[in-house]
Amino acid sequence: LTATGPASSLSFKIDDTEFTYSGSVASGDVFMLTGFSYTKNGLSIVSKTNKAYFVLRPDKPNRITCNVPGTVRIIGFQNLYA
Question: In the chain, what's the furthest Cα-to-Cα distance?
Answer without folding.
Answer: 39
